[in-house]
């Protein structure tokens, strides 16, 4: 599946490098797309076809240590509207999830991936579109699985509310 892309000419490079300079890291990952999906639609379709592309994110490293995720969001016309940085555990969990994918021979340094948030279920996922597998970031022992397998997790969260 091809990942839709905004026209990133100009604004993303400037936005990412300016934010990185403020935070003091020494290298950035290639930007990867970020999506938001609706919980009920994800359960109904058993896939991530309802996910809406909302921006781009890049990991900021100090040496080999991920220290922040820098996110740029755009409006429908592709104009930059917001840049935020996320420090906490997200950057380390993204790297850990990609390492899990690499351990399962589903990814390497060249494999495109995306970050998908399902806010109603409290889930954030690394999505590997080429193999259509996801890895939950909230789980310490996450294993790759198909998006359809998330339906039970999402249902249990929605039913507990």
Topology:
Blueprint: H1 11-23, E1 27-28, E2 32-36, H2 39-45, E3 52-62, E4 65-74, E5 80-86, H3 90-103, E6 114-118, E7 123-128, E8 133-136, H4 150-160
Helix pairs in contact: 2-4
**How many distinct beta strands?**
8
Mean pLDDT: 80
Report the structural category: alpha+beta
Order of helices and strands: HEEHEEEHEEEH
* Portion in beta strands: 25-35%
Terminal CA distance: 34 Å
What is the share of helical residues? 25-40%
What does this structure look like?
This protein is α+β, with helices and mostly antiparallel strands. The protein has one domain. Helices cover 28% and strands 31% of the residues. The protein is built from four helices and eight strands. Strands 1, 2, 3, 4, 5, 6, 7 and 8 form an eight-stranded mixed sheet that branches. The longest helix is centred in the middle third of the chain and has 14 residues, at 90-103. The N and C termini lie far apart (34 Å). The model is unreliable at 1-10 (pLDDT under 50).
Summarize this, please?
The protein has one domain (11-160).
Key terms for this structure?
8-stranded mixed sheet, 161 residues, disordered N terminus
């Amino acid at each position: 599946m091809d990942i839709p892309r905004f026209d990133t000419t100009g604004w993303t490079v400037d936005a990412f490098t300016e934010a990185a300079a403020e935070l003091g890291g020494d290298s950035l990952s290639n930007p990867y797309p970020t999506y938001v999906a609706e919980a009920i639609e994800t359960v109904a379709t058993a896939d991530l076809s309802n996910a809406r592309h909302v921006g781009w994110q890049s990991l900021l490293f100090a040496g080999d240590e991920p220290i922040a995720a820098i996110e740029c969001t755009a409006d429908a016309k592709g104009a930059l509207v917001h840049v935020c940085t996320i420090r906490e555990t997200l950057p380390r969990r993204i790297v850990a999830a990609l390492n899990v994918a690499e351990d399962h021979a589903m990814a390497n340094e060249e494999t495109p991936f995306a970050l998908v948030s399902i806010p109603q279920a409290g889930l954030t996922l690394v999505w590997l579109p080429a193999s259509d597998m996801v890895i939950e970031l909230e789980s310490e022992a996450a294993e790759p699985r198909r998006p359809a397998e998330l339906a039970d997790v999402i249902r249990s969260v929605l039913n507990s509310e």
